[in-house]
Design brief:
- With about 140 residues, the protein is mainly alpha-helical.
- Helix content is about 55%, strand content about 10%.
- It has helices at about 5-15, 20-25, 25-40, 60-65, 75-85, 100-115, 125-140, and strands at about 1-5, 45-50, 70-75, 115-120.
- The longest helix is centred in the last third of the chain and has 15 residues, at about 100-115.
């Protein structure tokens, strides 16, 4: 199975890093671009890692659901704060007026509604957690 990070695709399309897209074109443009690119992906046997803001595009989420299982790697606000140490240079697609807690709250409901499978991900993935994820995927695809 292959892996694709859709942020890299967006960076190739725009020929700049995600944070530069946000800085130069704005969050709304990044979300538009992300939705358009994801809605056109045609991949088989791939793990598709989307950017965090992909969930704002219902069309993209529906399309991803039509080509595979959507897995929500669920984390707490505390874990997000620990992982996002520099939101100004990280490529975080949030409105300047929105705090990190607001971004988290806004997205959690969207992630939960879009997910076919939810996996707790506050700690690094272990073999046991990967085994549980693989079983959930097998059950989802009725293997």
């Amino acid at each position: 199975m292959s892996f694709v990070d859709t942020d890299h695709i967006l960076e190739q399309v725009e020929n700049m890093h995600i944070q530069n897209i946000v800085n130069r074109r704005g969050v709304k443009y990044l979300r538009f671009l992300e939705g358009m690119v994801l809605s056109r992906l045609e991949l088989e046997n791939h793990v598709i890692a989307t950017g965090g803001s992909a969930v704002y595009s219902r069309q993209a989420m529906d399309h991803l659901g039509s080509i595979g299982a959507r897995v929500y790697l669920q984390i707490t606000m505390r874990t997000l704060t620990q992982r996002v140490d520099n939101s100004t240079s990280r490529g975080l697609a949030k409105m300047k007026s929105h705090s990190l807690p607001r971004l988290y709250t806004d997205r959690v409901a969207l992630y939960e509604s879009a997910a076919d499978i939810t996996v707790a991900n506050d700690r690094p993935m272990t073999a046991l957690a990967m085994g549980a994820l693989n079983k959930a995927l097998d059950d989802f695809f009725d293997v």
